Amino acid sequence: MVGRGEQPVSEQRPRGVVVGVDGSEAAAGAVRWAAQEAARRHLPLRLVAAVDWAVPAGIGAVDLQPEIFRDAIEAAAQEWLAHARAVAEDVAPELGTETEVRGGVPAAVLHHESETAELLVVGNRGVGGFAGLFAGSVSIAAAASARCPVVVVRGTPTPDGPVVVGVDGSPVSEPALSFAFTAASARGSGLVAVHAWSDSTLDAAGWALLEWDAIEAGERELLAERLAGWSEKYPDVVVTREVVRDNPAAALVSRSRRAQLVVVGSRGRGSVRGALLGSVSQVLLRHAGCPVAVVRA
Asked: Domain UspA spans what residues (predicted)?
């Protein structure tokens, strides 16, 4: 269905994998990743092109009639979707793939789509991205506000690498752990659970007063407690536990360069109340070496 204006998402549609499509190479990469994931999880695939029907101001000497502009934008969006469908069918021809052009600001449309999706997938930059801009505004907005897990496809995943998950030791990380174990089990890969704690706030005098061995032992115990139930639920997943004294974002970015996927919560234990996206998630969306899954707590 083609819409010009916000349209309700059908309550009867099965929850599946939704991909934002905008004609960019980054979006094509997101479609490839999403098609593989949908096939792996036996979920339907939905490709959505969101377009703003408003005629832009300051277009120069050309005075476009609204209907002419809309027809041109719609035709372009349909071409994006046709190409995206071809990409998806090349990856997973058995998939049932649905396409739709929806009117509205892309971030708002994808937020609406996320309300009935199992997973939302976007590229790291759109057609309006600048060279050197590592994460586009739409991908940041989607990761910050979506009602379902969001995967931002970026970097070059290591095919036989593990799934990496950041664990901060709080209940906030439970949804991320669930997603990470499910992803590792579906891929037949290992899982690296990283619990990073930083001593950057201490001065030299503070360092001398602390018993680092005891602190590290406590952090290891905390990680083991968080993983215990999940390891029992997913006995097929081989888990490597890593407790490191490092900045959490730096630790995860480093490990993402040898991973298939890195998974984090949308907000960590130290996030400011009211913040939609934690600092660790934001760093990963800009610098990770593989796709990043942001899971809402």
From this structure: 17-154, 162-296
Tell me the three state secondary structure of residue 266.
coil
* Full set of structural domains in the chain with CATH: 17-153 (3.40.50.620), 163-295 (3.40.50.12370)
Q: What is the pLDDT of residue 278?
A: 79
Q: Which runs of consecutive H residues, i.e. helices, occur in 115-211?
A: 137-145, 174-187, 204-209
Distance from the first to the final alpha carbon of the chain: 33
DSSP 92-118: -TTS-EEEEEEES-HHHHHHHHHTT-S
- Confirm if 259 and 157 have CB atoms less than 8 A apart: yes
Long-range contacts of the stretch 235-239 (C-beta < 8 A, 24+): 236/185, 236/188, 237/181, 237/184, 237/185, 237/190, 237/191, 238/190, 238/191, 239/190, 239/191, 239/192, 239/193
| pLDDT tens digits, 212-262 | 677 678 788 889 988 989 999 999 999 999 999 889 999 999 999 999 999
- Residue 217 is predicted with a pLDDT of 82
With H, G, I as helix, E, B as strand and everything else as coil, classify residue 6: coil
Please say if the pLDDT value at position 294 is more than 90: yes
Residue 129: what are its φ and ψ, rounded to 5°? -70, 145
CA distance 169 to 247: 15
